[in-house]
Amino acid sequence: MKVSDLMSRDVISCTPRDPIPTVMATMTERRVRHLPVIDGGKVVGVVSIGDVVKSRISEAETEAEALKAYIASG
User: What is the widest separation between alpha-carbon atoms in the chain?
Assistant: First the structure.
């Protein structure tokens, strides 16, 4: 068996400038766990669902800390 027998032919990709929520939505809608990152017609990396979730958790934690500080100062 060859890789060509298993690979996806209709590859979905993103760019380094795509917003994380957009990438997350694409991954969810298309049910993919990894997206190649294309810049200038070249693959410059791969983003995984784990990378995206980690980023969103970090954002949520930062927002929660900002709200706690706001409430405490107030």
Answer: 65
Q: Identify whether the C-beta of residue 35 lies closer than 8 Å to the C-beta of residue 12.
A: yes
This model's pTM is above 0.85: no
Backbone torsions φ then ψ of 11, nearest 5 degrees: -80, 130
CA–CA distances in Å: residue 54 to residues 47, 51, 60, 66, 73: 11, 5, 10, 18, 29
Q: At what angle do helices 49-73 and 20-30 cross, to 10 degrees?
A: 130
Q: Average pLDDT by consecutive 10-residue portion of the chain (74 residues)?
A: 91 96 95 96 97 93 94 87
